[in-house]
Amino acid sequence: MVNKKILIIDDDPDIVEAMRMPLEANAYDVIVVNCGRDGLREAKEEIPDLIILDVMMETDTEGFHVAYALRSEEPDSEYKSCSKIPILMITAISRQKGLNFSPEKDEAFLPVDAFIEKPIQPKELLNKVAEILANRG
């Protein structure tokens, strides 16, 4: 069996390490980049099984822009091969900026599969990753 490949796009090294360690301990292959531009490039090159995407990086909304680019419905989008990759958005934006998001309420607004609020608990992360990958088939 081939290990599932997960791309983490997050600029906080402590958060990245807190996610990378339990994922790798559970046999996931993890690729890490620290900005949206590099995340888009890696998504296109690696075609991961799942993308874990932070919202606030170089800008407060960078993660949203990455999600929209990956899920673009434009026929000539350079990220067309990435459009079906599940996206797990991680964020502290509600705590830091007062904006609240939920998959049920905002699924038409944000093209992501699930949200996790920071700080992330390893068990919650592993459960959500397993759930998303199982739903992907």
Describe the secondary-structure layout.
Blueprint: E1 5-9, H1 13-25, E2 29-33, H2 36-46, E3 50-54, H3 62-70, E4 87-91, H4 93-97, H5 103-106, E5 114-117, H6 122-136
Parallel strand pairs: 1-2, 1-3, 3-4, 4-5
Helix pairs in contact: 1-6, 2-3
Overall body shape: globular
Overall pLDDT score = 88
Gyration radius from CA atoms, angstroms: 14 Å
Spatial arrangement of strands, main beta sheet: 2-1-3-4-5
**Helix content bin:** 40-55%
Structural category is alpha/beta
Report the CATH topology name. Answer: Rossmann fold
Q: Tell me which CATH architecture applies here.
A: 3-Layer(aba) Sandwich
Contiguous helical run count: 6
Instruction: Kindly provide the name of the CATH class.
Output: Alpha Beta
CATH homologous superfamily?
Response regulator
Describe the protein.
By secondary structure, the protein is α/β, with parallel strands linked by helices. The chain has a single domain, classed as Rossmann fold. It is 42% helix and 18% strand. It has helices at residues 13-25, 36-46, 62-70, 93-97, 103-106, 122-136; strands at 5-9, 29-33, 50-54, 87-91, 114-117. The protein has a 5-stranded parallel β-sheet, sandwiched between helices. Helix 3 (62-70) links the parallel strand 3 and strand 4 (87-91). Helix 1 (13-25) packs across helix 6 (122-136) and helix 2 packs parallel to helix 3. The longest helix is centred in the last third of the chain and has 15 residues, at 122-136. It is globular.
